[in-house]
TrEMBL record:
Any single GO CC term annotated in Swiss-Prot or TrEMBL for this entry: cytosol
Pfam families: DUF87, Hydrolase_3
Gene3D superfamilies xref list: 3.90.1070.10, HAD superfamily/HAD-like, P-loop containing nucleotide triphosphate hydrolases
GO molecular function, one term: magnesium ion binding
InterPro entries noted in UniProt: AAA+_ATPase (IPR003593), HAD-like_sf (IPR036412), HAD-SF_hydro_IIB (IPR006379), HAD_sf (IPR023214), HerA_central (IPR002789), P-loop_NTPase (IPR027417)
Sequence ranges assigned to domain AAA+ ATPase in this UniProt record: 250-412
Parts forming coiled coils: none
UniProt cross-references to SMART domains, sorted A to Z: AAA
Protein name, as recorded: Phosphoglycolate phosphatase
Length: 569
């Protein structure tokens, strides 16, 4: 289910002449039975609304006074999000003969014919206030208060984001909250400006239009508007013909595959950034701590402390928080079991809230190995909106690979990467004869569209970060670890990351330090295991200096590492 909530205006939308029809109330009840939420968004005061609306109980929350008040019909609790109207404003309006005046906890309302007088009073008093039109009426509110701000607060209280919501309205003051919703709908009697911006206009008017909308929501989740939501598409890159390559944010799974060091993490980080820019919540399962430095992402866990499933779910309850789950504190062999515990909980959260919108799973061949079914653990029946990153697509469980819609092959042999994916899934890859590819391009294949793979220039991410920065600084390089052995192999001190390297370098005996220094072992490790060419070159210069005492070479090399990487205190 894509849309989990309906946000509806009251006057002119759900209601006609102050009243909601019995048919409309029954439609709201069917909406609730379908598992969806209902939010009423109105310019009316709460007491005024309750005097004419017998169906307030059908709404999870009511946004009143054009966004200034959020009311809970179940608890009768009202929360005010702005200051009351200034007494000077009310006095000035009365002196100008502005009548009638409807005064709420925050809003001041009157007839649209008084607009000039109202604006004059605001100007003369130097107030920071706004005048909002609503067909034949107008409202005065503090700057920054509108139906969108109120709806956003209501959604956060319900644990939903704007991407789970369909909004429906009819008047000028509905523009802001409809723009917030993933899908904006105007009833048939809406003002022309609202119809022009809506993704869907109902054939019927007022409450009958809302009934029409509810029936379609329940029947097929508004499937017919999917192709019109271009503003929510996530750009991946640029094709050879100059066209932007996009991925729809709902209903697709993506695989990024290629050899180590080919740029998978960089491309994935760019996709994550663009998802976050469009308010999609992202949850990253980050085995090596590669994504903890991304902006707007909370990192949970490190090499000393494994995150718990309870912590993860608690953090993801806030739709504004994106999470990177660092698994360095969990032994490699235990990670599939941890993921097996996590994924059903994430799927339950998604069923309830629609979030996290995207799951990013790095080192997917470790989390979802092709041996999964043999261990007795049940594979998730459906991942949904998941980006898998792997060096070995053929080692990912075939049942998971079968759900992939888009494959991005990175590195010098994309044809072989796609062929391995094809063999693992039983698909024939229609590789285009004579396709050329520039070194900075990748190959994309939209598996189900009947078209062959094509070359694409990935859209770069805005974050500048050292590749695999945290893994090299704090993680476990396993078989790429450095060993201080010294002359005749007297030692066997394993260095699994740069933090450990700096610690041992300061304490190892001088003879062992010089043994590796003169052999060029440090720069060789930095170049081939850490893959930092700059650090390797600078270290090589130190290794060539025979005029320096051993203690100074230790200091210079460790300071180079510490300047290049943020090491733990």
């Amino acid at each position: 289910m894509r849309y989990l909530a309906l946000a509806a205006d009251y006057d002119g939308t759900l209601a006609s002449h102050d009243r909601v029809s019995e048919e409309a109330m029954r439609a709201l009840e069917r909406l609730r039975i379908s598992g969806r939420r209902a939010i009423l968004v109105t310019g009316r005061r709460v007491d005024d609304l309750l005097s004419v609306c017998p169906c307030a109980r059908l709404f999870d929350l009511v946004v009143a006074e054009n966004g200034a008040i959020v009311y809970d019909p179940a608890t009768l609790e009202e929360v005010r999000y702005a200051n009351p109207p200034p007494k000077l404003l009310l006095k000035g309006l009365r002196e100008r003969g502005v009548e009638p005046l409807e005064i709420g906890q925050v809003v001041v309302g009157t007839h649209a014919a008084h607009r000039a007088a109202v604006q004059d009073v605001i100007w003369e008093l130097g107030l920071e206030a706004q005048v909002i039109g609503n067909r034949g009426a107008l409202m005065v509110l503090p700057a920054g208060v509108n139906k969108a701000t109120g709806l956003e607060r209501a959604l956060r209280k319900l644990g939903l984001s704007r991407h789970e919501v369909v909004g429906v309205g009819d008047a000028e003051n509905d523009h802001s909250f409809l723009a917030l919703c993933e899908c904006a709908v105007a009833v048939g009697n809406a003002v022309p400006s609202l119809k022009a911006t809506a993704k869907l206009v109902t054939a019927a008017e007022n409450g009958k239009g809302v009934i029409e909308l509810i029936e379609e929501l329940i029947a097929n989740d508004l499937r017919r508007v999917e192709s019109t939501l271009e503003e929510h598409l996530i750009p991946l890159g640029m094709a050879a013909n100059g066209a932007v390559v996009n991925v729809p944010p709902f209903g697709h799974n993506m695989l990024v595959a290629g050899p180590s060091g080919s740029g998978k993490s960089t491309l994935t980080a760019g996709v994550i950034e663009r998802l976050i820019e469009k308010d999609y919540q992202v949850c990253i399962v980050d085995p090596e701590g590669d994504y903890g430095t991304l902006g707007d992402v909370v990192a949970l866990g490190n090499q000393w402390r494994a995150p718990s499933v309870t912590e993860i779910l608690s953090i993801l309850e806030d739709p504004k928080v994106n999470l990177s789950i660092n698994l360095l504190g969990i032994p490699l062999g235990d990670r599939p079991e941890f993921f097996g515990q996590l994924i059903p909980n994430l799927q339950a959260l998604r069923a309830r809230t629609g979030r996290p919108h995207w799951l990013v799973l790095d080192e997917a061949h470790h989390m979802l190995p092709d041996t999964w079914g043999h261990t007795g653990s049940a594979l998730p029946k459906r991942l949904g909106e998941t980006l898998l990153v792997t060096v070995h697509p053929e080692h990912v469980a075939p049942e998971i690979l079968a759900s992939i819609d888009i494959v991005i092959a990175i590195g010098s042999s994309p044809e072989e990467t796609l062929a391995r994916f094809g063999r693992a899934t039983g698909r024939a890859v229609p590789w285009p004869e004579g396709m050329t590819r520039e070194p900075e391009q990748v190959v994309a294949w939209f598996v189900g569209d009947g078209q062959p793979p094509f070359a694409m220039r990935p859209m770069p991410g805005r974050a500048e970060r050292v590749r695999h920065h945290r893994k090299y600084a704090e993680g476990d390089l396993r078989w790429h670890s450095f060993y201080f052995r010294g002359t005749d192999g007297r030692h066997n001190l394993k260095v699994q990351n740069l933090a450990i390297f700096c610690q041992i370098a300061q304490g190892i005996d001088e003879q062992t330090w010089l043994f590796h220094l003169r052999r060029g072992d440090y720069s060789r490790w930095f170049r081939h295991a850490v893959r930092d060419e700059f650090l390797a070159e600078e270290t090589h210069r130190v290794e060539q200096r025979t005029d320096l005492p051993p203690a100074q070479t230790r200091q210079m090399i460790t300071e180079l590492v510490q300047a290049r990487y943020t090491l733990p205190e």
